[in-house]
């Protein structure tokens, strides 16, 4: 039986590796972070890793339609790739994207087309994304938010969105780390 990750990696690579090699490295790093928290995901570990490697495909030049990568990526996965619905929904809402959708006037479209998945899965994907640099190496969410703000500028739409999302990004990270710590305390 084929796993979601066996399907997701080649798809993400085909869309990102050549046109956006740095973005591809980031997605590989986010997927690596997903593997590090597999112990709290149980049967959803494969689902999260697949969503992690695919989360930024909406940046691919052939997919970018609205300029809002979570929506563009989710639409492609739903309409063209006929992907698993949970993967699609996770990508649509990854890393507090609903707050950016508000700023872009796309919140009704995002919420109308893609329901949010459970908090633990949304938290996990946000944790993985916000703890990975653009080059795919581990970081922490404070440095990641500062890097995003610096790259786009504090007065840009992205700069303002990421600062608005900062409390929720930090809360997601705390919830994930609390679950990991609790899982590690459990006797085998």
From TrEMBL:
<protein>
    <submittedName>
        <fullName>HD domain-containing protein</fullName>
    </submittedName>
</protein>
<dbReference type="InterPro" id="IPR003607">
    <property type="entry name" value="HD/PDEase_dom"/>
</dbReference>
<feature type="domain" description="HD/PDEase">
    <location>
        <begin position="19"/>
        <end position="180"/>
    </location>
</feature>
<dbReference type="InterPro" id="IPR006675">
    <property type="entry name" value="HDIG_dom"/>
</dbReference>
<dbReference type="InterPro" id="IPR006674">
    <property type="entry name" value="HD_domain"/>
</dbReference>
<dbReference type="Pfam" id="PF01966">
    <property type="entry name" value="HD"/>
</dbReference>
């Amino acid at each position: 039986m084929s796993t979601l990750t066996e399907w997701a990696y080649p798809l993400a690579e085909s869309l990102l590796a050549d046109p956006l090699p740095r973005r591809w490295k980031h997605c590989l790093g986010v997927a690596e972070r997903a593997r590090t928290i597999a112990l709290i995901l149980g049967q959803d570990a494969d689902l999260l890793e697949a969503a992690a490697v695919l989360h930024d495909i909406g940046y691919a030049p052939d997919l970018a339609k609205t300029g809002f990568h979570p929506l563009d990526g989710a639409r492609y996965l739903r309409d063209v790739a006929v992907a698993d619905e949970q993967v699609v929904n996770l990508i649509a809402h990854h890393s507090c994207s609903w707050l950016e959708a508000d700023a872009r006037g796309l919140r009704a479209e995002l919420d109308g087309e893609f329901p949010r998945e459970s908090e633990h899965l949304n938290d996990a994907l946000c944790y993985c994304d916000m703890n990975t640099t653009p080059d795919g190496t581990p970081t922490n969410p404070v440095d990641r938010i500062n890097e995003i703000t610096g790259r786009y500028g504090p007065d840009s739409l992205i700069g303002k969105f990421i600062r608005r999302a900062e409390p929720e990004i930090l809360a997601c990270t705390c919830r994930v780390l609390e679950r990991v710590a609790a899982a590690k305390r459990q006797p085998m």
